[in-house]
Amino acid sequence: MSFGRELERRRFRYLPEVRTARRALVLGDGDGRFTARLVQQGGEVSVDYVDLSARMLALARERAGIERVTYHHANALTLPLPAVEYDLIVSHFFFDCFEEREARLLVERVARASRPDARWLVSEFREPKWAGPFLRGLYLFFRVTTGLNTRRLTDHRALLAAKGFRLMQEETSRFGLLVSELWVCP
Predict the structure, then answer these.
(1) pLDDT for 138-174, tens place per residue?
(2) Cβ atoms within 10 A of the Cβ of 111, count?
(3) Which of 14, 125, 166, 184 has the smallest C-beta neighbourhood within 10 Å, fewest atoms?
C-alpha cells in the first residue's frame, strides 16, 4: 500500500502558520523537504536539524543548504539541547519510532528547550479502529527492513498535553490514519 504524496502533504499542512518562526528544532525530517520549504518561505528562521541517518543528513544538506541550517548527526534523546531556545519544533513521522518511555523523555527534553508560546508541528500515524492489522504489518515491515524495535504507536498527544502543550489545529487524511497537528506551548 502506498501513501503517494499524502505524507508530504501532512508535513506541509501547517507550514504557513509558522512563517514567523525564528529558531526551529527539526527532528528527523528525512531528506529535508520540509526544512528546505521552511527556510525558503521567507522570514529569518535558523534551524537545528537532527537525524540519526548520515544518508538523510546528506540529502537534507543538499536540499536545504547550510546558510541557515545546522545539521546534527545525533540521537534526539541524547543531543544536548539549550534551555528555552526554540519557538518552533517539528517532528514529522518521528514519534512512531519510539516506545512510550522514550517518547516521554523526548517530549520532556524538548519542552525544556521550548520558548513560551512555541509551536510544535506534528505529522504522524494514528490508529483508527480499522487500522490495527495494517499498522502491525507496517511495523513488522520496518522491523525487518530497518531494525526498528518499536512495535506499536505511542500516543504522543497525551505526552504533549501532559507537558502543557495545547492542540490548536489538526487535520486527518486516509480515513484517519494520518494526521497533521499544530500545538502551542504554554
Answers:
(1) 655 655 665 556 655 688 999 999 999 999 999 998 7
(2) 19
(3) 166
How far, CA to CA in Å, does 54 sit from each of 24, 26, 44, 60, 79? Answer: 20, 15, 26, 10, 15
3-state SS assignment for residue 163: coil
Q: In what order do the strands lie in the sheet with 86-92?
A: 69-73, 46-51, 23-27, 86-92, 114-125, 178-184, 166-173
Q: Is CATH 3.30.70.2640 what the domain over 6-184 is classified as, yes or no? A: no
141's grid cell: 515491515
Copy the grid coordinates of residue 36: 528546505
Angle of the 33-40 helix axis to the 54-64 helix axis, nearest 10 = 30
Grid coordinates given for 8: 508530504
pTM: 0.87
